[in-house]
């Protein structure tokens, strides 16, 4: 790295990180989010291809749901006005309506009898209650029942769920099965979604080989590439995998320039720390980019770096596998969601009860791989953190259900303490 680059980088580091050079993780996430503008492009997809995509605009109901009064039960429709006096009552069965049958009569007179009606069938306009079949006896084409039901009994009135014009899905929603159900119920077969976020990834490191290749002395398998690709494997993301690049400044710079040219965000692993072969921050500035986050008060993952190169965002994840994994969840996910137009929300977390002892002497917020081991008598999940978890240890991560978050200033965790748990 030349002196000028080193000076620029050091100055940017001071500008973006303050005097102690460690940014709180929430500030780092906020700075990353501030760099991301929701993408403008969108495309039309069929309902079958809409799951996991970000919906481009608000969806308002076209139809009332349900779209007609229908029976909530298998039973018998009656008109309560036709019944008087004390029960039991005896009504003749005069017709039948099953789901899908058309209500063509438009009869307005109050029927003296009853019709057999099945769940989901339209309730003809001149009937106002349904008695479930378990509450009647059937005898010689008549039903016999003791109590007159209230008006509306077992009838799902048209529009009780939603009315035409109601907002049923808000712009920016990441479509899941439940949203697709609503779109289908509204008769919508195609939908406008945000274009996919283009995420270019590459792993840096001369020591890295791919699974399946032979390992020579000093070499390791590239696990980050696969973990990151899996973390990014979402329908709203297009992954551009540029593979593994050895620690050659020129080669890394060319790869980075190409990646920034074609992607909305470039995510790399390795090469962001302070070693001789940690070239990535220097390459960002060398390409005319800017570093916005360098060194975060997080464990693992202190060297995580966020910057911009041209129109593209750069997220430099540390090489250590657990550090890369955690920072992708915390920072990468948030930035990509915003690029896709989704509303900002922190990673899902809940309160759990610790079943471990831990003393801490770090000024960094810690994310410790942990697994759920049961529930306490109050029903809260109980979690056990892995003792020997470090930024490079894959076994605790592989055995974990998520991370326990240990905030700055927390000196000790004892069994029974409440802790924040982020499932992964
Ligand atoms: P670095 O941040 O490049 O200094 O890497 C830190 C540590 O993570 C080193 O021990 C690397 O060998 C290791 N490492 C870097 N990249 C990967 C990767 N893609 N897969 C597994 N380990 C890696
Ligand atoms: Mg490296």
SSE map:
Blueprint: H1 3-17, H2 25-35, E1 42-46, E2 59-60, E3 70-71, E4 75-78, E5 89-97, E6 114-117, E7 129-132, E8 137-139, E9 142-145, E10 155-156, E11 167-169, H3 177-185, E12 190-194, E13 197-204, E14 208-209, E15 220-221, H4 224-231, E16 237-245, H5 249-262, E17 265-269, H6 280-286, E18 290-294, E19 298-299, E20 305-309, E21 312-317, H7 321-339, E22 350-354, E23 358-359, E24 365-375, E25 381-385, H8 394-399, E26 402-406, E27 412-413, E28 418-423
Parallel strand pairs: 5-6, 13-16, 13-17, 14-15, 17-21, 19-24, 22-25
Antiparallel strand pairs: 1-12, 2-11, 3-10, 4-6, 4-7, 5-9, 8-9, 18-20, 20-21, 22-28, 23-27, 24-25, 24-26, 26-28
Helix pairs in contact: 1-6, 2-7, 4-7, 5-6
Adenosine monophosphate (AMP) binds at residues 203, 205, 207-208, 220, 222-225, 269-271, 273, 275, 278, 318-321.
